[in-house]
Amino acid sequence: MKDLHLEWYAPEYEHRPKGVLWYWGSMIISLAVLALAIWQENYLFAIIVIIAEILVIVWANREPRTIHFNFTENGLVIDKRHDYRWEKLIGFGITDDLNEDTPKLYLFRKEHFHTPIVIALPRSKRETIEFFIDTKLPRYDISSSLSDVVDEFTRF
User: Fold this and answer.
1) What secondary structure letter does DSSP report for 71?
2) What is the DSSP letter of 80?
3) For 6-12+63-154, which CATH class?
4) 153 CB neighbour count, 10 Å cutoff
5) Residue among 119, 129, 146 nearest 12 (CA)
6) What is the mean predicted confidence (pLDDT) over 109-137?
7) 18-41: b or e for each residue (b if 16 or more CB lie within 10 Å)?
């Protein structure tokens, strides 16, 4: 039988453009935390807050890179650098909220302390990919985690 494979390109993460108010809000919050750190005479924490705010400002406007995904009979290959074999995965789930541009595929690994692999699926290939993975892994129900809710709220 011929080896089956599905491949597509997707952004590394969902980029949400931020306005001036987002940056001002971020700076006001960090200044409040910085003032608290100085008031408590915790200067190391104050330095950490400054570094964190600089990183937030720099990363907030960074464009995601495009990643190549390839499902084969052996597993998932991401950018020809990461290889996840079907034997190392325990299940999958797909979220498909109508207010999202792209559905998200969650792949759960056997290792306990790893977060799931989250991949943006193109709507045009969603059913094909879902059918393909369904023959390899059991399906899990997916619900929004706290980090998903915080991410959506902060638009980061």
Assistant:
1) E
2) T
3) mainly beta
4) 8
5) 119
6) 83
7) beeebeeebeeebeebbeebeeee
**Which amino acid is it at 30?**
S
Which candidate, 68, 70, 67, 114, places its Cα nearest to that of 89? Answer: 114
Domain range summary for the chain, segments of one domain joined by +: 6-12+63-154, 20-60
pTM for this prediction: 0.72
Q: How far is CA 49 from the centre of its chain?
A: 24
**Residue that the structure tokens 């700076």 belong to:** 27
CA distance 59 to 66: 16
- Distance of alpha carbon 132 from alpha carbon 73, whole angstroms: 9
Class of residue 89 by CB neighbours under 10 A (exposed 0-12, middle 13-18, buried 19+): buried
46-59, pLDDT tens digit by residue? 999 999 999 999 98
Contact 66, 9 (CB under 8 A): yes
Rg (alpha carbons) of the chain, rounded to whole number: 20
